[in-house]
Design a protein that fits this description.
The protein has 80 residues and is mainly α. The protein has a domain at 21-73. It is 74% helix and 0% strand. It has helices spanning 3-17, 24-43, 48-71.
Length: 80
């Protein structure tokens, strides 16, 4: 269980960074990182608490990205 504190700290940083996000790519990046941490927590046997926290951060990032696209649909059409 040596990885648990590190993974929880990373998730806390990701969750805190959600309030500062202004670009869709940032939401995607947070979503991808949260999913990677969730997968690691599952394979490392870190328990459901870690997996659920990662899933929650992932969902919040997806929701934030959806809200951003709702407010500015053109963001989904850009290729930068």
């Amino acid at each position: 269980m040596a990885g648990k504190p590190t993974q929880l700290a990373q998730l806390n940083r990701l969750e805190a960074s959600l309030v500062k996000v202004v670009h869709i790519d940032e939401f995607k990046d947070i979503r991808d990182k949260a999913e990677a941490i969730r997968g690691y927590a599952q394979t490392a046997g870190l328990g459901l608490e870690s997996q659920n926290l990662a899933a929650e951060v992932k969902i919040r990032a997806e929701r934030g990205g959806g809200e951003l696209l709702r407010d500015d649909p053109e963001l989904g059409n850009r290729t930068e």
